[in-house]
Amino acid sequence: MTADVVVAGGGLIGLSLAWRAARRGLSVTVVDDAPGSGASRAAAGMLAPVSEAGYGEEALLRLCLASLDRYPAFLDELAADTGVRVPLRSAGTLVVGFDDDDMRVLADLQTFHVELGLEVHRLLGREARRREPSLSPRVRGGLHVAGDLSVDPRELHPALRAAAEGAGVRIVGSRVAGLLTDGGAARGLALDGGAELRAGTVVLALGPHSGALPGVPAVPVRPVKGQILRMRAAAGLLEGTVRALVRGRSVYLVPQGDDGLVVGATVEERGFDGTVTAGGVHDLLHDALDVVPGVSELELAETLARWRPGTPDNAPLLGPTSVPGLVLATGHHRNGVLLTPVTADAVADLLVTGELPEVAAPFTVDRFGAP
Amino acid sequence: MTADVVVAGGGLIGLSLAWRAARRGLSVTVVDDAPGSGASRAAAGMLAPVSEAGYGEEALLRLCLASLDRYPAFLDELAADTGVRVPLRSAGTLVVGFDDDDMRVLADLQTFHVELGLEVHRLLGREARRREPSLSPRVRGGLHVAGDLSVDPRELHPALRAAAEGAGVRIVGSRVAGLLTDGGAARGLALDGGAELRAGTVVLALGPHSGALPGVPAVPVRPVKGQILRMRAAAGLLEGTVRALVRGRSVYLVPQGDDGLVVGATVEERGFDGTVTAGGVHDLLHDALDVVPGVSELELAETLARWRPGTPDNAPLLGPTSVPGLVLATGHHRNGVLLTPVTADAVADLLVTGELPEVAAPFTVDRFGAP
């Protein structure tokens, strides 16, 4: 059995690019033994290009803004194709601080948003509490980023799967065992158990596992562990995403659905250790309680650890490689949910036209030098 | 179908007294829709009559000491009857303190142990750390109670069930719907779905649910919520139980099995609210990390809330009631695991001889006045 394209990995990235490519006429197969069980399972779904503490490179920022821009239309098309409307929360992000140092960080962040032409409002403590009444009285001030959105990755993933299957994508529930090559060019995937899937092009979308697939030249992706908490009974507690710096640690609280709240996330370099630790959970709870004391009464419904696909410059790896027929769509680090639409479209463009669109061109793996 | 005795509740108390009564020739039926899913599921299994902050009444202390005394033989008999050896950890309890106030509490606790003739050793901070090297360097001193034991309630419960069944006890997996009476005397239990179990004597061992069984006169038992954490990967971290006062909150850490650790417990008056809360988990983690910083690296494997059967004087309710044929074995509050052997023997004595043994006599419900 052969296809135009075989995609290794059925997470948000793999499924969305498969959907977009299939809509444009390609035959696509996705291989994943547990679609949706990876990084998206733990992601909070913040769509916030510049609320992160590090401002990042200009090219990455443009990519993030482009993806944020197309999110509403992306979800509209998803709804049109599947009948499933994935809600987009549009209350923005409120970044809050507690002391003078924090206020200086907020001022810099405000300047940066203004330079980018983004709508941002500086708030005094009482103004921040008027917007989010459950904030701690110790909050000194905040910055409201009106254009930030959020989405629940656990709702997005099944919708993308339905859309992909509706567009004719075949999903194979096997583990990817390696890349098949022929004369130095990618020719398909080897599966667990010995089966082979042949295709003209292979897309590697294995997230943190993209770095070590047999047959693939070294891809500079490493797992960056993140622990998160999911709360219930949070109805009415927060209107939108709240981020804060607490003693140098960044914490975010993202409302989900009717009564959910995601609190995240640790950032740990521990390889593929997937342990939920007492220390990780403690730090997240401690910081969340500092920002929103009412979190204390919420049900702690789930604790979880997953791995972000980290790269040396924290930007994704998109497009062709030194192996003909092998395409990368990985390395999205903390921005996988945000970058899903732009990645899907860029990789579909590449598969159909042979060219990456300009916005994605800076993210080819050759920026790290020839392998 | 009739039996000599029908027991409402298949927790540690219900099963152990059923086992002891059946061994003495009575026909016994136990009714529980989910045996072992109650308070024992969350209990840490400390067998520590006087390590608790409150010293309690003298009669309760005697009952607790009597039960501790018979634990080794109780487990020997259990092993003889079932072939299952439930391990008894005998490293004692180390009670530690951080400041002058704590040191005064430890001194009082030491005096009290000495008065009772119990073996107790006062330790300087470095001596405490020699015994338990993972203790925080901030620990100022400790008290080692050599005779305290601990057991894993999750190992004890299935062994008791096997022993009871081996002795001929019938276990009925139904919910108890009410007490059957006839001319003012107990005659059996009504089950969900309308079935009835007739018996000469009914023993009420429903733990926190003992207070509101239809047909039973008011029993002064209320649910006292406790949240606990179970950790894994704790091999070698602690030798025995460690207790501490942390800013007025009591926390305990009890090693279980090869690599388990139980951290407990909150004490909350919230009725039958069974929510694991962010605040409860935070406080337990925070206090445990204060006492043993290495807890930070452990896997947080499980969080759980259950209810202790509380009474107005925190002592159990044992023996006859104003309803002929209705016997109580409930209200064990924080001491259910510890008091299991003495309760089982006392109630079996009552069922066989018509008399409660002297050690249990102070715990009849009539101490709260006539109903």
UniProtKB/TrEMBL annotation, chains A, B:
EC number: 1.4.3.19
Any Pfam family hit: DAO
Pathway the protein takes part in: Cofactor biosynthesis; thiamine diphosphate biosynthesis
Domain FAD dependent oxidoreductase: 4-350
PANTHER family per UniProt: GLYCINE OXIDASE (PTHR13847:SF289), SARCOSINE DEHYDROGENASE-RELATED (PTHR13847)
NCBIfam families xref list: thiamin_ThiO (TIGR02352)
GO MF, one example: glycine oxidase activity
Domain of life: Bacteria
Catalytic reaction(s) noted: glycine + O2 + H2O = glyoxylate + H2O2 + NH4(+)
Gene Ontology cellular component list: cytoplasm
Gene3D superfamilies per UniProt: D-Amino Acid Oxidase, subunit A, domain 2, FAD/NAD(P)-binding domain
Keyword Coiled coil carried by entry: no
Protein name, entry field: glycine oxidase
Entry keywords, A to Z: Oxidoreductase, Thiamine biosynthesis
GO BP terms, alphabetized: thiamine biosynthetic process; thiamine diphosphate biosynthetic process
Organism from which the protein derives: Blastococcus saxobsidens
